[in-house]
Amino acid sequence: MTTKIVFPLKRLGAVAPRNAAEIEDSNWFLGCETLDRDYADFDQYKEYLCPLGIKYLRFQGGWAKTEKEQGVYDWRWLDHIIEESVGRGLKPWLQTGYGNPVYPGAGGENLGAGMPLSETGLAAYERWVGKMAARYADKVFDWEVWNEPNFGDNKVNTPEITADFNIRTARIIKEIQPGARISALALGHIDIDYVERFFQYLHGHDACGLFHNVTYHDYSYNPDGNKLAVYKMRQIVEKYAPGLILRQGENGAPSEGNAGGALADYNWSELSQAKWDVRRMLENLGNDIQCSVFSIAEMQYTGNGPVQKKNAKGLLKTDAGNKVTGCKLAYYAVQNVTAVFDNTLERIKDASYTHSLAEGDGNRYWISTDRSIAVYGYRHRETKKRVYTIWKDDAIPGDDCEMTFLDFAFAGGGFEDPVLVDMITGSVYEIPAAQWSREGTIDRFRRIPVYDAPVLIAERSLIPIAR
């Protein structure tokens, strides 16, 4: 990718990455999936985990990889992953899937292959879940039930069957680990009727309290394009399980076109992937949704699953043998997000601001009603200093970086030394005195460059800067 992102401002430095050990907590999770099917190699990418700045890692439990012969459990592969992760100060989030073909009616071992439905299959599944929960009870505190129950062969299951499956799984884990944080549903795409019936069943069986959060996966070409569906889903969750946390449990974009998996039929690049990932992360943060980035490394899909090509959504490049060959632009862009947005910041709900086209800007199309921008505000919990995220949100991220210059006014901003930050490159720029003023409690910024990836107007003290 040769496109250069140019800001007409003085560069002060770049965002300094923060190791996961330096961050107490944050909104972010990281996908480390498919190790159960050997589509990726944990040892090849483990050294890249902590520098990314995300503490929670999503893994699949891999029943078929662990119990290849009925009643014989070989945990060594998963022991290694869990122990390495915990030893590095990271926190595994372990999913109880997939199925196991060594038992009749116990489901399949690939994405969308179907969950256990027979009495024999369910009994064997429950034994495995119980043994896994007991084995890792002092290392794993976050769990998730079956992946994407409304996808592929799982479509034969009703929402009620899926809800019952979630309940029986959660009860096994809770019996062993009462304080477990369990994710419900892991919906493959947002299906409002499915969500409604699922939660009706949980509520009717007094089982909503078993779960800490509800997860969904939504691969939309425009990362900002699923707000209405998420809003409808949130309304249903609040109706039946008030206070249940919403988590986007798996989402990302490829770095090349015609690759395997979701969103493949678009001409992606490393730049548009980085824009997609950062926009989705910050859109989720701005709407109080936890966010898991899929995934740490490219995955080489083989076998009998529905995907037969490399899945290029990884932040790291890999070869056919799953060896890491380098970092993509998205890896560094995600580092920029994690370095700034942790639990020391709180969202400013209903942040008050106005914006308008800067005088003399040539991009007159911006006035048209089919263009929009996203703006979210945050403040430091102690100092109350602020940071605002801004980007064009109306289209699929592209490879051009055409800037539109806008004027902004923020109520109660209280800025003392504001800077502009580009979240793709991490570059930090000076906002000259001629482009910033205060009128009472209103901070006004003039000719701020905005494009289809997030920029920040931030108090300088909130940005870790490396020169």
Task: Describe the 3D structure.
α5 packs parallel to α6 and α9 runs parallel beside α10. This protein has 467 residues and is α/β, with parallel strands linked by helices. It has helices at 42-45, 49-52, 63-66, 76-87, 119-135, 159-176, 192-204, 227-240, 270-286, 329-340, and strands at 11-15, 28-31, 56-60, 91-95, 142-144, 181-187, 213-217, 245-251, 290-293, 299-300, 310-311, 316-318, 324-327, 345-347, 353-357, 373-380, 386-392, 404-411, 418-422, 427-430, 436-439, 442-450, 455-459, 465-466. The chain is globular. It contains ten helices and 24 strands. The chain has two domains: 19-340, TIM Barrel (Alpha-Beta Barrel); 345-466, Immunoglobulin-like (Sandwich). The strands form five sheets. Strands 14-16-17-23-19-20-1-24 form an eight-stranded antiparallel β-sheet. The chain has an eight-stranded parallel barrel with strand order 2-3-4-5-6-7-8-9. Strands 15-18-22-21 form a four-stranded antiparallel β-sheet, with no helix packed on it. One of its GO terms (molecular function) is hydrolase activity, hydrolyzing O-glycosyl compounds. This is Glycoside hydrolase family 42 N-terminal domain-containing protein.
Percent helix among the residues? 10-25%
Low confidence ranges = 363-369
Proportion in β-strands: 15-25%
Largest sheet: 8 strands, antiparallel
CATH superfamily of the largest domain, by name, is Glycosidases
Q: Class of the largest domain in CATH?
A: Alpha Beta
Number of helices: 10
Radius of gyration: 23 Å
Spatial strand order of the main sheet: 14-16-17-23-19-20-1-24
Distance between the amino and carboxyl termini: 24 Å
The count of domains is 2
Average pLDDT: 94
The name of the CATH architecture of the largest domain is: Alpha-Beta Barrel
Tally of strands: 24
CATH topology of the largest domain: TIM Barrel
Structural class by helix and strand composition = alpha/beta
Shape annotation: globular
Protein name: Glycoside hydrolase family 42 N-terminal domain-containing protein
GO molecular function: hydrolase activity, hydrolyzing O-glycosyl compounds
Organism: Eisenbergiella massiliensis
InterPro entries: GH, Glycosyl_Hydrolase_39
